[in-house]
Amino acid sequence: MSQKMAITGGAGFIGSNLAEALAKENEVIIIDDLSSGKLENLAGIEAKFVRGSITDKELLRNEFLDVDCIFHLAAVPSVQKSIEDPIRINQINLDGTLNVLIAARDAEVKHMVFASSAAVYGDSSEVPKKEYMVPQPKSPYAVTKVAGEHYCKVFSEIYGLQTVVLRLFNVFGPKQDPNSEYSGVISRFISSILTSLDPVVFGDGEQTRDFVFVNDAVRAFILASRSKSSKTYNVARGQGASLNQLIQIIGKIVGSEIRPRFLDARSGDIKHSLADISEAESIGYYPRFPLEEGLKRTVDWMSKYILLNK
Ligand code: NAD
Ligand code: UD1
């Protein structure tokens, strides 16, 4: 049955992939201030686009009227930016989330899915990460996600707005912007390698992440929108890979030997991140894309992207 769905941050990497999937069967509204998202990400997607900020409560309230489900993804997603400018990141990621919740409540929306992050787990030695573990944020970014999760819970208990929290691990794939120093590591590595630059590794490259292909993350959002309880789920592949391993696999895909440039580790960086994904299996989630397959698709997309933007 077709529903009316709103996506905050829908012109961004994950949001635009989600919009593409949802727009096949639903009416979709995207609210995005284009601070890091791009209109070109929405090419060919049938959706209403509203340029505006989640700091604008009035705008949100109007756009949320008659919406069945809100997917709240708008945020500044960079750990490093949050260390450089915690106040601005708090205003967008946390005050913005509170605005979205208030507008959702006022417009009588029944269901919301919140894009939280594996960053909430911090650096505790216990792996894999399970949803019941006590959050140990290591950066202002992670603090905004922990607090946002608490607000979601409180809004579901007090106001009856059903909220599902997805703790996304490291998502990668087509439409991830490689152009900023704050971009996700896979998009940075692939774009450097395809343009014959040495990829930069912060630290010794032995840090690990649980990388998950964007199509899998999108499926998790859609499953969460159908779930009947306000719960929290890890979204990942349930397997870790180090940056050094990534470089080897990408080298094999592009057929060249890669010599990374090693720089000092970044502050606020987590050493190891790995998810237990058994909880998400209860809503029907399981990852379909092996790392290598996801990387091949990302290399294909990035090759075309680089050609088009030459
Ligand atoms: P992205 O930067 O591509 O997307 C974020 C979108 O939010 C952008 O389109 C941006 O323009 C928009 N935005 C920012 N501030 C806004 C504002 N004030 N009002 C309206 N729109 C605003 O990042 P992404 O990787 O697609 O991340 C999407 C969400 O998923 C974020 O909440 C992020 O924290 C979360 N997340 C991402 C990852 C990942 O690996 N990419 C992992 C965990 C969590
Ligand atoms: C990423 C997401 C964050 C999300 C979190 C969940 C981005 C930009 N950040 O943070 O939104 O909440 O996952 O787990 O998508 N690195 C390099 N070289 C580079 C870039 C990065 O070595 O050119 C290193 C970093 O220092 C870090 C690792 O790669 O050790 C991953 O960095 P990054 O992709 O920025 O992701 P996270 O910080 O894990």
Provide a brief overview of the structure.
The protein is α/β, with parallel strands linked by helices and 310 residues long. The chain has helices at residues 13-22, 57-63, 79-84, 86-106, 140-159, 185-194, 214-226, 243-254, 278-281, 291-308, and strands at residues 4-8, 27-32, 48-51, 69-72, 111-117, 162-168, 170-172, 200-202, 208-209, 211-213, 232-235, 241-242, 261-263. It is built from ten helices and 13 strands.
Structure characterization notes:
The protein has ten helices and 13 strands. The N and C termini lie far apart (42 Å). Helix content is 39%, strand content 17%. It has helices at residues 13-22, 57-63, 79-84, 86-106, 140-159, 185-194, 214-226, 243-254, 278-281, 291-308, and strands spanning 4-8, 27-32, 48-51, 69-72, 111-117, 162-168, 170-172, 200-202, 208-209, 211-213, 232-235, 241-242, 261-263. The strands form four sheets. It has a seven-stranded parallel beta sheet, with helices on both faces. Strands 7-10 form a two-stranded parallel sheet. A two-stranded parallel ribbon has the order 8-13. The longest helix is centred in the first third of the chain and has 21 residues, at 86-106. Helix 1 (13-22) crosses helix 7, helix 2 (57-63) packs parallel to helix 4 and helix 4 packs parallel to helix 5. The protein is of the alpha/beta class. It folds into two domains: 4-171 and 211-236, Rossmann fold; 172-208 and 240-278 and 289-308, UDP-galactose 4-epimerase, domain 1, CATH 3.90.25.10. The protein binds nicotinamide-adenine-dinucleotide and uridine-diphosphate-N-acetylglucosamine.
